[in-house]
């Protein structure tokens, strides 16, 4: 009798092969180890930022005041100027990048169809993805500041961030549009709906929550970028809401400013700004989740 | 609300590849014409040329003419989008729009083409759902997602969506192949009712279904893999299944191949 015959005769009498059981256990252990490897640093970062930054942000002044007139020896003041700067820069960046990235992705998925032009664009997006942020910043510095003669403002920071955000949002939107089943497009075409309207009213709404998630990933990335700020957005301790003129503070530069000081007030502000940045990204992500519900896939 | 379609010397290509060759046939108004044949024989491809859906695949084009009541569907001035408003389609897998409610799914064709008047939309949705024998099952939950219905209900929803734009012709590409027998029966009954108003062309792999629902049957076949599919024979359904002229048809329907 062969092994197969035995199995057919009485399948339940067959116990799980020893080799398979061992391999299963080894794979499970490896999986949990990999999980721990990923989670431990994350938990560690969250814990240290929370424990060291918490005391700074519980002060109400932190959310309402700037650091104007406050030295590293005087307590008080807040991170309002830096939060405002970061949010303004991120907003401008998002406003410029998202339309470009969305249209690029729509072209690549719906119109380009792997043609030569689409391949070239796709290649450019790949290159853009690999550009170090400091190179993007220097490019804008050379073009916008030295050549065109504009100042180092919130706007010039945003321009550099646009270069970093476009590829992230393009790639994620592309993926989301690709997984929209072609049956839905066909169903729409079969109703006599033109292509552009099908994309606008069927394809994009179906992919909407994924697109929003991609945009949020992009926003989170640019909010933490530091190199463009160092080159294009000098720190200031005062509130400046005008992205077109003057220095504009941002949370990463606030961290960097306080990081170099050894006094405990500065250390506390460093961690406080770091925690604030994390909380801002978290709040925006939650808001986006909530927002995407309104046009999400139902069922 | 139904039209006669006359196809003459139609070749269908995907780029250089000729998928269907030399089809000449007519589809009579207010009747059901079924297309049968083995896989790959080009019956679905041919079906899609009747509303120019095959052109969505890069390189898809035709030679020959398809005329609907004397109007050439492939005329130089004819917009494929306009053709699809007149020739609706139901697909193999039910494909309700996942972002839309039952109501919005049925109203989609009108809404996406700019109709905003609420009373008109409500009337159309009710009429279409009644016509698709779905109204009584969903009347209390028109605002629930369309994707939450059962497979058979979803397919009837898709039929309601297709007839809501009042096409002249309804194409069905294996509309029951993803459904259980009871849902299939419901759809077949529905086809029998719809033919009072529409010209229906249905592709099916199920010969009993073709025999049950259609007035006329067209048998497609291909000489070999990679060769274009051809129309072998078109006749009254009774003749095709009872006394076909061609040997290939007889072999196919009696299960000797395919």
Describe the 3D structure:
The complex is a heterodimer of chains A (299) and B (258). Chain A is built from 12 helices and no strands. Chain A is mainly alpha-helical and 299 residues long. Chain A is globular, with a radius of gyration of 26 Å. The N and C termini of chain A lie far apart (52 Å). The model of chain A has no long low-confidence stretch (mean pLDDT 90). Chain B is α/β, with parallel strands linked by helices and 258 residues long. In chain B, α3 packs parallel to α6, α4 (118-131) crosses α6 (151-164) and α6 runs parallel beside α7 (181-194). The model of chain B has no long low-confidence stretch (mean pLDDT 91).
State the oligomer. Answer: heterodimer
> Which stretches of chain A of 5+ consecutive residues score pLDDT under 50?
none
Average pLDDT, all residues of chain B: 91
State the secondary-structure class of chain B: alpha/beta
User: Which radius of gyration of chain A do the C-alpha atoms yield?
Assistant: 26 Å
Strand order of the largest sheet of chain B: 5-4-1-2-10-9-3-8-7-6
The whole-number mean of residue pLDDT values of chain A reads: 90
Instruction: Give the CA-CA distance, first to last residue of chain A.
Output: 52 Å
Give a short overview.
The complex is a heterodimer of chains A (299) and B (258). With 299 residues, chain A is mainly alpha-helical.
Which key terms come to mind for this protein?
heterodimer; A: 299 residues; mainly alpha; globular; B: 258 residues; alpha/beta; 10-stranded mixed beta sheet; 10 strands; 35% helix; 26% strand
Helices, strands, pairings?
The complex is a heterodimer of chains A (299) and B (258).
Chain A: H1 3-9, H2 18-57, H3 60-64, H4 80-112, H5 116-130, H6 133-147, H7 154-178, H8 182-190, H9 195-224, H10 227-232, H11 251-259, H12 264-292
Chain B: E1 5-14, E2 17-27, E3 32-36, H1 43-49, E4 60-68, E5 71-72, H2 80-86, E6 87-90, H3 102-112, H4 118-131, H5 135-138, H6 151-164, E7 169-173, H7 181-194, E8 199-203, H8 207-213, E9 216-222, E10 229-236, H9 237-242, H10 247-253
Parallel strand pairs in B: 2-10, 3-8, 3-9, 6-7, 7-8
Antiparallel strand pairs in B: 1-2, 1-4, 4-5, 9-10
Helix pairs in contact in B: 3-4, 3-6, 4-6, 6-7
């Amino acid at each position: 009798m062969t092994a197969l015959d035995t199995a057919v005769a009485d399948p339940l009498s067959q116990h799980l092969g020893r080799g398979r059981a061992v391999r299963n256990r080894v794979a499970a252990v490896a999986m949990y180890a990999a999980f721990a490897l990923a989670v431990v640093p994350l938990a560690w970062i969250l814990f240290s930022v929370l424990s060291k930054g918490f005391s700074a942000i519980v002060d109400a002044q932190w959310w309402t005041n700037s650091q104007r007139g406050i030295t590293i020896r005087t307590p008080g003041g807040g991170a309002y100027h830096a939060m405002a700067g970061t949010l303004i820069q991120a907003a401008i960046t998002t406003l410029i990048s998202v339309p470009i990235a969305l249209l690029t992705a729509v072209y690549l998925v719906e119109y380009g169809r792997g043609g030569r032009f689409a391949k070239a664009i796709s290649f450019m997006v790949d290159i853009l993805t690999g550009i170090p942020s400091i190179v993007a910043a220097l490019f804008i510095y050379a073009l916008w500041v030295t050549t065109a003669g504009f100042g180092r403002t919130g706007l010039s920071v945003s321009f550099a961030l646009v270069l970093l955000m476009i590829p992230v949002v393009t790639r994620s939107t592309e993926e989301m549009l690709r997984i929209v089943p072609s049956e839905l497009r066909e169903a729409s075409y079969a109703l006599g709906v033109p292509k552009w309207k099908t994309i606008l009213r069927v394809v994009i709404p179906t992919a909407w929550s994924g697109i929003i998630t991609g945009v949020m990933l992009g926003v989170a990335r640019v909010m933490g970028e530091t190199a463009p700020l160092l080159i294009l957005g000098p720190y200031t301790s005062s509130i400046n809401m005008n992205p077109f003129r003057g220095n504009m503070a941002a949370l990463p530069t606030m961290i960097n400013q306080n990081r170099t000081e050894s006094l405990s007030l500065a250390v506390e502000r460093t961690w406080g700004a770091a925690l604030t940045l994390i909380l801002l990204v978290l709040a925006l992500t939650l808001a986006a989740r909530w927002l995407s519900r309104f046009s999400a896939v139902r069922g | 609300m139904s039209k006669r379609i006359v196809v003459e010397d139609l070749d269908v290509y995907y780029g250089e590849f000729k998928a269907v060759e030399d089809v000449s046939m007519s589809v009579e108004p207010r009747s059901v014409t079924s297309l049968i044949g083995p896989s790959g024989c080009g019956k679905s491809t041919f079906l899609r040329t009747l509303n120019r859906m095959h052109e969505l695949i890069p390189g898809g084009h035709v030679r020959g003419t398809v005329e609907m009541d004397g109007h050439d569907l492939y005329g130089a001035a004819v917009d494929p989008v306009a053709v699809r408003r007149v020739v609706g389609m139901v697909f193999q897998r039910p494909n309700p729009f996942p972002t839309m409610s039952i109501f919005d799914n049925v109203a989609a064709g009108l809404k996406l083409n700019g109709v905003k008047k609420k009373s008109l939309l409500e009337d159309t949705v009710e009429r279409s759902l009644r016509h698709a024998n779905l109204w009584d099952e969903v009347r209390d939950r028109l605002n629930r997602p369309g994707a939450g219905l059962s497979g058979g209900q979803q397919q009837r929803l898709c039929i309601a969506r297709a007839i809501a734009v009042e096409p002249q012709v309804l194409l069905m590409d294996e509309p029951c192949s993803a459904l259980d027998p009871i849902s299939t029966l419901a759809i077949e009954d529905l086809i029998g009712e719809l033919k009072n108003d529409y010209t229906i062309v249905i592709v099916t792999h199920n010969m009993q279904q073709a025999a049950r629902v259609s007035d006329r049957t067209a048998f497609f076949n291909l000489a070999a893999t990679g060769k274009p599919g051809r129309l072998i024979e078109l006749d009254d359904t009774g003749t095709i299944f009872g006394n076909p002229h061609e040997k290939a048809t007889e072999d196919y329907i009696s299960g000797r191949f395919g």
